[in-house]
Amino acid sequence: MASAGKRKRISNVTNTQPSNNGAGSSSGTVGDGQVTGFVEGSILRITMQNFLTYDHSIVYPGPNLNMIVGANGTGKSSIVCAICLGLAGKTAILGRGDKVGLYVKRGCNKGSVEIVLYKAKGNLVINREIHVENNQSMWMLNGKHSSQKTVEEEVKALQIQVSNLCQFLPQEKVGEFAKMTKIELLEATEKSVGPPEMYDFHCELKTFRTKERELENVCKEKASALEKFKQRNERNKHDVERYYEKKRHLDNIKMLEKKKPWVEYETARKELEGVKKAREDAKKQLKTVRESQAPMLKKIQHIDSQLRPIENQMKDKTVSIREASQKCKQKQDHLDRKHREIEDIKQAFSLKQTEAADRQKRISNTRRMIDDLREELANIGDQSDVTPRIDAVNAELRRIQDEKAKMEGEKADLRREKDNLNGECRLLKNRLRSLDDMMKIKEEKLRGRSKDTYAAVQWLRQNKHIFSGNVYEPMMLVISVRNPDHAKYVENHIPFNDLRAFVFQKREDMEKFMMEVRDSQNLRVNSVFAPEESCANRAPSRPIESLKRFGFFAYLRELFDAPEEVMSYLCNQYKVHDVPVGTDQTKTMIKTVIEEPYLKVLYTAEEKYSLKKSFYSGKTSTSNSAVRPSQYLTMAVDAEEKRQLEEQIRTAEKSKQAIDVQMSTMQERTAKLDRRDNELRAQKKVLSEMKGKKRQLEQKISTKQDSLRQMEQGGIDLQKAEEETKAQISAVNSQKVAIVAEFMAHMKLRAKLSMEKVYMALETVGMTAEKTKLETDCRDGSAELRVLEQACAMLEQRKARLLEMCKGLMRRAREICNMDPGESAVPPDLHTAFSQLPDTMDEIDAMLNEERSRAECFTGLSENVVDEYNRREQEIKNLEKELDEKSNALNTYRQNISEAKERWLNPLKQLVEQINDKFSDFFRSMQCAGEVDLHSENEEEYDKYGIRIRVKFRSSTQLHELTAHHQSGGERSVSTMLYLMALQELNRCPFRVVDEINQGMDPVNERRVFDIVVRTACKETTSQYFFITPKLLQNLQYADEMTILCVHNGPHMLPPDKWDEKAFTRRCVRRKGK
């Protein structure tokens, strides 16, 4: 109860004295002093100052069940908000305004909430002062300034969790409980009623399991890599052995190649010593033979000195003879050229004779052709004139050309018209394609938010024919907002569950759809059916013109287009025809606007206002929230525009088809005209040829006569040509006589020189014979000399070669053995190796060939294979070491998991069994069935564990899991309430709050649930419980441990100083007695 206007509403509740307050009760509290029956962390007192609907109010709850009762709008939920915000809860938990400043009473600059929590060692007083201007809070803890974090830590230490739906369930979050996943429900239950360490053990298990999976994957990867490396090395092991065997052969080859130059050098050196000795012996024999041959050699040299001048003279004669012969040849060539010149003169004369004969033949043929043309000209001279017939054909051709030109003009007009239609079609199709693209974007947004709804849309498009009435896809796809800036109002007004809902004209179609999609395909979808009587054109409560003075420009229905059934549903369900939309002007005049009658919901530029009028007091309460930005309706697709575009495209296509028919007809007519034109042109050509043939004959005769005259005038004089030919031949013969005389002179000179050369040759023969005889005599005596000279030369050459060979072999041997240039002895290490190898070249070559043959047998081997093998061996050792370490770590984690699992799972199973026993008992008491179990698809996946609630409210059905879609709203409320009551007796949290959960229940279930709540929450072993409701059934069972808090708040209530609780009780007893 409260005073009118701004009077303070104070609640002072005791268990002995009645009070005049805003919330009355009977409880086990005694002021703020000694308390009894409260558990650690229970609420002793709630003080609200300028908070929501309260000016000032104090609430004293009891230690057990607190039943907060009051009419709608009196401020019951305000107490819930005070508990949440006073205990450092977030505004998002309440589901109301997102700014804490919105919870200060309208017109005030600041408000405060003070909560006193019971603690055995001294109560905890938390005070939160909220400032509207900067949307900030000031905290005080036991009268001292503090921070929000410190308050949160103190609250958490008392096991208070206002963010846990199992402990704190505001009115706006009742539906969220059924939407919780099994995993979320398990975590909330652990936090709410489990031992303090249970949730920590669960988190620890999940962390251990994550690390275990990581280690398992690492061990698998390393074991797999280790096995692969071992397999690869096993495959390469034989190649490595072969490589080393090949290397041994190559080392032998290398050592043999090092020894080979030393053996070669030693062999060459010994051979060089033998050659030097043989050369000295040969030189001594050569000297002796030369001394015996000296006299004969001297005589031969004297004959050579006499022969040399004669041989020089013979050479000179030979040169002169060659010159004379050359000159004779030149004169002979000159005579041959003169012979050919005479032949050319005779051939030229013969060609002139042939040309004269050909000219006479051409003249004869031309005369014959002229006679034939004259005869043909005489034959056609009497034919009729064809000019009139040609004129008639020309006239017909002109007529055809005119008709074709006319048709071409018509065809050009049709082509232009068709091009225009094509361009129009392209524009229309582009616009239609852009609309389809926008629809696809909206569909993608729908799929991103609800894959099940998207799948149902695809199914509907393929099976639309099975429905008898109109069926519409989800509203977000068929609603077209006229201005994208206004989409946010439509989205904020229509919940997303309805935006993704299918709309049906007939209920039987909706049932058929849900049976197929939800029950058969297990898709989570929403569906609604339109009212039987259309509400799409329902008139608003008052014309929009009467509201324009406040800045309103339209009703919500006028901001978007939708099919009639969809619009009818929205008008009926959400009153879109009666929700005005305003501007910033509306915001500035909001105090005046909310006093206007008939307004229940309205929008300013950035906020939504909801107005509720109290049924009891008639006072209007207002709540506001920020308008969220649009997510789904910004891309507007105008269905009517799309239909008009499709109709325009069909009309244009039909016009194009008609034009094509006309074009085809005109093409056939043009083809006929072309054929007639070709016929007339052929006829004209024949007539023109007849007309021009006589003129052509006359021209040909004239041409042939001119040609005949030219041939007769251009004749050749053969007699004159013959005389010129003879003169030319005579001149050439004179030149030939002079050339022959010169030729004979040169021949005589050559003969003379030849005779002189013969005489000199005879003289030389005698001297040569004497020299030959001397040489023959000397040759027999000097055979031994030549042999010795050759032997000496050969030995000298061989010595030089062997010396160079020795030097080269020594250099090569030093280079191969990496010796210094001055060294000549084999190093000791090589000497030892050389001693085990053959000492002869043949044996070394044989052994080299054998080793090379063996080495060549090892093909396809590479040093990289060995390097890779050795590197992989090292990696195998490293991997084995790492695998041992990881395996040990994995075993340690598994041991930790096993220990943590035992600490967590067994108590959890016991806890769930206790909850199930209570939950099942509660349902059995209501003649229904329900059970709670610990659900997990895989026992080792600790992050997949969850609590599954299954219920059935009719004996003919099976147990179904509690979801946000399968059960009705009342059934969900009953299940939620009974689950919370099952948690109540386990009592780890100090208090629980449930706000208006009984609103969706039928009277039978509400009565049963109320009885269970009273029995459970009033036990001595349970914690504090807050049950908020706007109404109660009659004749309910109550308990002495209950605390009834009646919220009297409004302008028509009695002032606090006039409220008499005893008098009110007496009147109620008298009224009941009557």
UniProtKB/TrEMBL annotation:
Subcellular location: Chromosome, Telomere; Nucleus
GO cellular component: chromosome, telomeric region; nucleus; Smc5-Smc6 complex
Region Disordered, residue ranges: 1-29
GO biological process, one term: double-strand break repair via homologous recombination
Gene Ontology terms for molecular function: ATP binding; ATP hydrolysis activity; single-stranded DNA binding
Coiled-coil positions: 226-292, 321-445, 635-714, 785-812, 862-903
Xref: SUPFAM superfamilies: P-loop containing nucleoside triphosphate hydrolases
Alphabetic keyword roster: ATP-binding, Chromosome, Coiled coil, Nucleotide-binding, Nucleus, Telomere
Compositionally skewed regions (Basic residues) per UniProt: 1-10
InterPro entries: P-loop_NTPase (IPR027417), RecF/RecN/SMC_N (IPR003395)
Domain of life assignment: Eukaryota
Residue ranges of domain RecF/RecN/SMC N-terminal in the record: 43-1031
Keyword Signal: no
Biased composition (Polar residues): 11-29
Subunit structure as annotated in this protein's UniProt entry: Forms a heterodimer with smc6. Component of the SMC5-SMC6 complex which consists at least of smc5, smc6, nsmce2, nsmce1 and nsmce4a.
Similarity section: Belongs to the SMC family. SMC5 subfamily.
Role, per record: Core component of the SMC5-SMC6 complex, a complex involved in repair of DNA double-strand breaks by homologous recombination. The complex may promote sister chromatid homologous recombination by recruiting the SMC1-SMC3 cohesin complex to double-strand breaks. The complex is required for telomere maintenance via recombination and mediates sumoylation of shelterin complex (telosome) components. Required for sister chromatid cohesion during prometaphase and mitotic progression; the function seems to be independent of SMC6.
Identification of the protein by name: Structural maintenance of chromosomes protein 5
Organism from which the protein derives: Coregonus suidteri
